[in-house]
TrEMBL record:
Name listed for the protein in its UniProt record: Sec translocon accessory complex subunit YajC
Alphabetic keyword roster: Cell membrane, Membrane, Protein transport, Translocation, Transmembrane, Transmembrane helix, Transport
Membrane topology of the entry: Single-pass membrane protein
GO biological process, one term: protein transport
Species assigned in the record: Geobacter soli
Subcellular localization(s) per the UniProt record: Cell membrane
NCBIfam families: yajC
InterPro entries assigned: Preprotein_translocase_YajC (IPR003849)
Gene Ontology CC annotations of this record: plasma membrane
PANTHER family according to UniProt: SEC TRANSLOCON ACCESSORY COMPLEX SUBUNIT YAJC
Similarity comment: family membership: Belongs to the YajC family.
Residue stretches spanning the membrane: 25-42
Amino acid sequence: MLGIAFAMAAPPGGAQTGGAMGAFQAILPLLFMFAIFYFLLIRPQQKKAKEHRALLESLKRGDQVVTAGGMHGKVSGIDGDIVNLEIAPGVVIRITKGYVASLKKD
């Protein structure tokens, strides 16, 4: 039992046990977790945002779209950041361009 106590005690003379290697081993799991978060969460989100920006830039009159709120309609005009969306014959609503979620493939 006394041998275990001496094995767990600090080395004689106050010498450090790990040095730089111990600090690296302490940071290594954090770096590994950051890499996992980057490749599983951050990178796919950036790719999706880039695709959405490309979709908004390619919008043109006559496109069939779905909004973030679930409205389906045809783009009847674009004025800067505002999209005129015809949701029924003769019914045109104005929405912010960023709320166009996807193009319908008909």
